[in-house]
# Entry
Amino acid sequence: MIREVLHYPDPRLAIECNDIDEITDDIRQLAEDMAETMYKEEGIGLAAPQVGEHCRLIVVDVSGPEERTDLMKLVNPRLENPEGDVESEEGCLSVLNYRSKVRRAEKVRLVAKDLDGNDVCIDAEGLLSICLQHEIDHLDGTLFIDKISRLKRTMYDNKVKKWLKK
Ligand code: NI
# Structure
């Protein structure tokens, strides 16, 4: 089922999510819904709070744009061993009409569980590394616009205020 994606400044995007203690059918269904929603919105990642669910679950697929073949559904993901730093342009399905350069670690190690409870460990770099950092930030209530300069952020917030008045 396709879920509605929440948009900034919805306060539900700023909530820190809880760990998933048990991988239930509801969690599996949520992951399926999130993947379907991500593909429909042509995103490369989606985190549970973006559809209003406050548990530590993300879906990621950095393949495409034509064929999407690398879907990962990750439970309680965390990052270790950040290395280097890079700046790249990011956008977000929850941040409308805005992209900006963001500085992040170049390489990270992902540690998580899959939906069968198996351990997942991936050394990520490039787009996957950036995407994982972006999605895991969502689980802590952080958006990429929390990482840009104050000036850029103020300009974006002013635009959002104008849209909300309409
Ligand atoms: Ni995002």
User: Anything to note?
Assistant: The chain has one domain: 11-165. The chain has a mean pLDDT of 97. Residues 92-94, 134, 138 surround nickel (II) ion (CB under 6 Å).
